Amino acid sequence: MTSLWDHPDFDDHEVVHFVTDAASGLKAIIAIHSTYRGPGDGGVRFWHYPQDDAALTDALRLSRAMSFKSAMADLPVGGGKAVILAPPDRVKTPELLAALGRAIEGLGGAYVAAKDVGITVADLVEVSQHTRHVSGLPAGAGLAGGDPGPPTAYGVYLGVKAAVHRVLGKKSLEGIRIAIQGAGSVGGGLARWAAKEGARLTIADLNVSRAETLASELGAVAVDAADVMTMEADVFSPCALGAILSERSIPLLRAPIVAGGANNQLARPEDGDRLVERGILHAPDYVINAGGIINVVLEHFRQASEDEVRERIEAIPGRLGVIWDESDANGHSPADVADAMAKGLIGRA
């Protein structure tokens, strides 16, 4: 039997908790990758996994990404992630959320929960009735907090603009063809920002009606989710689930830029090199999509203003530029360059 320490995505995680509450049916994994800079902050994901090992892989990969994301955004937190193994009917109950809250409280502040796939702000409010360690709760006017989706989308939009300027020499997205995978809070937010500048959008989502509704709103084209990665475009923007850039899919890409909000876009570390070999500029996901964690961390720790959040998010393009410059100079992929920087920031150089 393979041990946790031999798992391919185990990266010296400080602790991994397996949580069970028989009364509510809760089965969850809480992974804390690093507390070097502060408590492990990261979203709660509610997802139905065909196999339990897939949930563990998600928890390990996502918590590591949160360590790197927070460090690169210069935030006083580490990286953690909670994954709830949803039942096939994907029904959440108040009892299940309460059990999760009690489990988080039992960790004594080592993990701070936030919103992720399958969890709403209302769910977090329910969890917060049972633990103090929740971020991304509704905030007063002008203050940081609430749904991390819109600030994440804003950061991704700025990162896409930076990549377009670098590769295509254009400061505006007018006429730029962007294929967006995912029409949720982040993909939808990116689409709206890009549409304001006159971008030509192709949108896909597993929820076909959601993609079609967004496309109709913005004058875009909705396509099948299976086709969006292979569309001829200037930018392919993955804004859904991760591990979609692989040995199999990268040769099929028909865009010179990959820049999107999905976490853990590379299926394996070596896939960053495959993008370089194809001459495709990649924006490391945990750098470009840091807007959400900036928002919720500044809310949780000191009730910062929306203006400060915006200012911090607007530093994302400059950070990407530093990574791309170093990648060009040393020949390493942007993903490897970003990983090396992040490891240094969490004491693992």
Provide a descriptive summary of the structure in words:
With 349 residues, the protein is an alpha/beta fold. The chain is built from 12 helices and 11 strands. Helix 1 crosses helix 12 (334-345). The relative contact order is 0.13.
Strands, helices and their partners?
Elements: E1 15-21, E2 26-34, E3 40-47, H1 52-72, E4 78-85, H2 94-105, E5 111-115, H3 121-128, H4 149-168, E6 177-181, H5 185-196, E7 200-204, H6 208-218, E8 221-222, E9 235-238, E10 257-258, H7 271-277, E11 281-282, H8 285-288, H9 291-302, H10 306-313, H11 316-330, H12 334-345
Parallel strand pairs: 3-4, 3-5, 6-7, 6-9, 7-8, 9-10, 10-11
Antiparallel strand pairs: 1-2, 2-4
In short:
It is built from 12 helices and 11 strands.
